[in-house]
Amino acid sequence: MVAQTSFVATPALEITNLVKHFGHTKAVDGVSFTIEQGEIFGFLGPNGAGKTTTIRCLMDFLRPSSGSVKVFGHDAKDHGVAARARIGFMPQATSLNEKWTGAEHVAYIGALHHTHDRAAELAKEFELDLSRRVKHLSTGNKQKLALVLAFMHNADLTVLDEPTTGLDPILQQAVYRLIHKAHERGGTIFMSSHNLAEVERTCTRVAILRQGKLVATEPMTALRDKHLYTITLEFTQDFTLPDLANVTVVSKVNNSLVLKASGDLNPLLKALATAPVHDIQIHHATLEELFMEFYV
Amino acid sequence: MITIFWRTIKDRWRMLAAVTIIGSLVQFMYTSLFPTYSKSFGQSEELFKQMPEALKKAFNMDQFSFNTLDKFLTIEMYSFFWIILMILFTLSLAGTSFAGDVERETVTLTAGQPVSRSRVFWGRYLAGVKLFSVFNIVVNFIVLPIASAFKLHIDPLHLLTIMVMGELFGLAVFSVATAVSTFLTDKSKVYMIVGGTLLVTYVMNIISGISEKFANIKYASPFYYFNPNTFLVKGQYNTAAVLVFGSVIIIGTVVAWWRWRQRDIL
After folding, report:
1. What is residue A245's DSSP assignment?
2. Which one is the CATH code of A226-295: 1.20.1280, 3.40.1000, 1.20.120, 3.30.70?
3. Are the beta carbons of A63 and B115 separated by less than 8 Å?
4. In this complex, how many residue pairs, one in chain A and one in chain B, have their CB atoms less than 8 Å apart?
5. Do residues A288 and A224 touch, judged by C-beta distance below 8 A?
6. Equal fold, A13-224 vs A226-295
7. Contacts 24+ apart (CB under 8 A), B244-249
8. Inter-chain touch B114–A113, beta carbons under 8 Å
9. Helices B239-262 + B156-183 axis angle, to 10
10. CB distance from A112 to chain B under 8 Å?
């Protein structure tokens, strides 16, 4: 008889009941989620939701009030060195040392990480001059340098906090390419963002945080499948729409009606079958509208 | 740790150069002026004799005389200027290395890498010790070639004594400032708290010399233990000073190390 062994990969990130208090304020309140290896995981939420606090606990900048954060099985607090050895962390542009050049940043972090294999290649891709001091760089170039520092050592888990802030659309595309290349190599990406369109096009799964609590953790497809529509109707004469579940009248001006509808549209279409419809426009909601509708 | 150590040295060498050059220039100024002062030291001594005894004691000037270079430097350099430079330099080193780095959030550049909090602490702390030691050694021993150039005598062993005691005093201030710095997220508060405390203890030392009623408060002042007259003129070490400064260095360093490992750094 041959014994069968199944290998289950250790999660790239496992956050269990994370709580972080600042005095009486609960910045993070019982957050739990797991990121499997190879995922591109988005971390969404309005300002003050607790995204940055969670990332800071993951990096061991902050010590949790309770709960645990594990990176590839290593506790972020007790075995922080082993955990961070597998993380490529993108510092915020404001955290760069104004007096150092880009090359000095690369050399310093490379020495602490024992590698900076791809720094020159990435700097070339971003057209970033590493010989200039940070204080002489524009906000966009500082952001590029922060990205170079995060991706230069091909980390197993790349942690990005608002990675495209300050970048023009062309460079944003370059960042998305970088994320996808890292993903293709088998890397895991954990990125926080305010830009929902960015998360929509980049991530495979998303966690939504609000007031320190996890509202949802869903695959991007499930988020898109929530089917939220904005419908603009124009009638040839006055028409009163019957009350329907999941349909809200946003505005009514003369013979025009703007509706917000979710889920199955068939009841609405049936109600409109006998209506004097002159024109109809149906728009799929953006992720932002979805977010506001379902999670805020 | 070595990377952090050398990076800290590299970031602070301009500050080291500035305080060392200023200290050396002041040493040069006083040493070169000594021959002129010594010619009129009789008048100065008469003036000094009229000062209240308590005041002389308070400023560690109980054996005032300008007739030798070491006595002159004790009064002019080591009772005031060297102390000011030492305090400014050590506070700056301690404030920028910990609270200042947290304040600017540049701490994430180091703490976000696979390096323990302890290594970050010791890399920076030992760099501070090295920087202060370079300042202390240069500013003290630069007197030898300057004195030689002006054909003046000063005992190298006495210079060694004040250098060693100055090192202990400086490291005691540095350790306490580092401990305070690891509790705070604003370097200006470190300067304010430690600088303010030193000022208060300086005043305490003066008051203890003036008023018999408050004679015992001098024991709480580091300025009581740092007596340049004993170190530079007599070439004697002070056991109490060694014990006090040594204890403060150990306690301050352990508290700072413990706190840095525990704290939230953002």
Report:
1. T
2. 3.30.70
3. no
4. 67
5. no
6. no
7. B244/B172, B245/B165, B245/B168, B245/B169, B245/B171, B245/B172, B246/B168, B248/B172, B248/B175, B248/B176, B248/B222, B249/B168, B249/B171, B249/B172, B249/B175
8. yes
9. 30
10. yes
- Rounded to whole angstroms, how far apart are CA atoms B134 and A290? 63
- B259 Cβ under 8 Å from any chain A Cβ: no
Q: Are A84 and B266 within 8 A, CB to CB? A: no
Tokens of B174: 């540095």
Q: How far apart are CA A237 and CA A232, in angstroms?
A: 15
Instruction: Say whether residue A25 is in contact with chain B using an 8 A CB cutoff.
Output: no
Identify the helix (H) or strand (E) that includes residue A190. strand A188-193
pLDDT tens for chain A, residues 1 to 296: 444 455 678 999 999 999 999 988 889 999 999 999 999 999 988 778 889 999 999 999 999 999 999 999 999 999 999 999 999 998 777 789 999 999 999 999 999 988 767 888 889 988 899 999 999 998 888 988 999 999 998 899 999 988 887 778 888 888 898 899 999 988 999 999 877 778 878 899 989 888 899 988 888 877 767 778 889 999 998 888 888 888 888 888 888 999 988 877 888 888 888 889 999 998 877 656 766 766 65
Name the nearest CA neighbour of B28 among B110, B143, B191. Answer: B143
Q: Which residue in B218, B200, B220, B243 sits closest to B60, CA to CA?
A: B218
Cβ atoms of residues B88 and A87 within 8 Å = no
Instruction: Kindly tell me the burial class for residue B249, based on how many C-beta atoms sit within 10 Å of its own C-beta (0-12, 13-18, 19 or more).
Output: buried
Q: Does domain A13-224 have CATH number 3.40.50.1820?
A: no
Predicted ipTM of the assembly: 0.84
Which residue in the block uniquely carries the two structure tokens 């998303």?
A206
CB contact under 8 A, A59 and B112: yes
Q: To the nearest whole angstrom, how far is the Cα of B104 from the nearest Cα of chain A?
A: 7
The DSSP H or E segment spanning A207 is strand A205-210
End-to-end CA distance of chain A: 55
The length of chain A in residues reads 296
> Domain locations in chain A?
13-224, 226-295
Q: In chain B, what is the straight-line distance between the N-terminal and C-terminal CA atoms, in Å?
A: 21
